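Per reviewer request, we include the raw input and output of the structure prediction for the construct analysed in the revised manuscript.
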Amino acid sequence: MMQTSSPQVIGITGGIGSGKSIVSKCFHIMGIPVYDCDKEAKRLNHTHPTIRQSLIKLVGTHVYMTDGTLNKVALADYLFATPTHAQQVNDIIHPVVKEDFLQWKSRQHSPWVAIESAILYESRFDSLADKVIAVCAPAEVRLTRACLRDNASPDAIRARMSHQTTDEEKSKQADYTLNNDDKQAILPQILDILANLLCTYRR
């Protein structure tokens, strides 16, 4: 359990196309600060000296462009080549993101904050959270959303989905499951979860 002086942390996770960002936006509107791991990792990949030096040592100088920006294609080629490569890259990036999150959290003045990550469990960032919400949707719904959002082919999205833990597994590990299947409204589910959390921590 986190110290009472620190904000309580809600983890938000879900696979590609599940609607994590919509849930995060709702939290933000409600005044709950949200740390987006994907967005912040991209920033840190470009700016953090430890990541830069370690990726160059691991992948080669071509992992950064001549203008200093990350060569996403080169990194992806290395990352997805083998599970070992993926673990090596994650071992470089995840500790830096974790430390950045902790620094960010220390600057917040809210009783609650949230951390959004598609790989919350895989990265072990769930250890940073007091409670976790898994945002779930049927695979075909997620596929359609992701294809439209990323202007990508179904095969490309399926390949990305195959590298992620299934919604079922995320739901089993999470404290709450939010169904974003385009049939059930999201906001009432979020309000129910927050009401439950408030009751839990008032006891």
